[in-house]
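User: Fold this, then the next.

Assistant: Folding the first:
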Amino acid sequence: MISRFHFPGRLPGDGEVALPDDLAHHALRVLRLRDGAPMVLFDGEGGEVEARLAVRGKAGFALLGERHACDRESPVRVVLAQALAAGDKMDWVVQKAVELGVAAIHPVQAERSVLRLSGERADKRRAHWQQVAVSACEQSGRNRIPEVASVRPLAQWLDAMRGQCAYVLAPGGGAGFPARERPEGAVHVLVGPEGGWTESELAACDAAGLQRVTLGPRVLRTETAGLAALAVLQAHWGDF
C-alpha cells in the first residue's frame, strides 16, 4: 500500500513542499521509504495529493502531483460523547471511532469516571487524542480529521445538547437505533464510564431531552458501547 501522511497546513496545487520534521522522521526512519517512493498527502481540507518523496541529506521533500477530490466521509454525522475511561481505553475509542466514520469526539467527565482530568493535564491528553485521530485518518483513508474537543463536565455538555438530536446509551432503556427515524442533522451519542451512569446523571440526561437507547440485553464495556453504536448507525443510516 502507498503510505498516506497528514500534512499540517494547506498543500499548494503543485511544486514541492518540505516535510515537517516529524513527518520526515516517520517516512525516512520508521517506514524507511526511499528517494522517489510514492506517497499520498492530505491536509484535512478534503481531497488528497499524489506525491513522490525526495530525500536530500537528512531532509525530506514531497514532489506534488495530481490532487484528487475524493471524500470518504459518512453520510450520517455522528458525534461521539465518551465518558473518560482509564488506561489506554480512550486511545482505543478515538482510533476505532475515526475508522468507523465518527464526525467528532467529545470527552466527558462523569461522576464514576476513573480517569480525572483538568487544566494543563486535560489539554495535553486532548492534544494526544487529536494526534491519535490524525494517525487513524492516515490509516483509514479519511481526508478530513474529526475534532477531539476539550474535556467537559457532563452538565456542561448536556447544556449544549438542548434542542439537538442526542441519545444516551443506557442498559435496559428505550428502543434500539433501528426503531428511530433518521434525523436531519448530526446525531450525538453519549456513552457512560466504567462504573455506569448514576441515577442523577440519567435524570439530567432526561431533563436535557436526550433519548435513552439500548444496544440489546447485554451490558457492554465503555470502550465497546460507543463503537457498537457507531457500527449500528453506519449500517442503518450510513454507508455500511
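Now the next one, as you asked:
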Amino acid sequence: MREFIDLPGASGATYRFRLWPQGASHSPMAGNYVLVKADAEGEGYSVLQAGVSDDLSAVRGTLEKAAKRGATHIFTRLNVSRVVRTSEHEDISAALSSKAG
C-alpha cells in the first residue's frame, strides 16, 4: 500500500492522507481519517469510511471493527482546527456520497 493517498472533496479540493502503519503509534492529535480496502494488487483502494476525531491515536479500534467490512488500512490527516477538520470531513463525505449514489 502506498504511503500517501489524495482524496477529492465535492468542492474540487484535494486532501492528502498518510498511511498509519499497523503496529505504529500515532500522536494524540486531532484530524481526519479514512478507512480503505486495498485491491488485490495492493496499489489501488476503495474508501469505506471517512471520519473525524479529536484524538487520532484512539481510532485504531475503528479499523479493527471495519475489518469485518473489508477495511485493510487507515490513513490520517492532522488537522488541529475543528472548523477546518469538520469542513474537510463534510467535503470528503459529500464526494463519497455522490460516488455511491
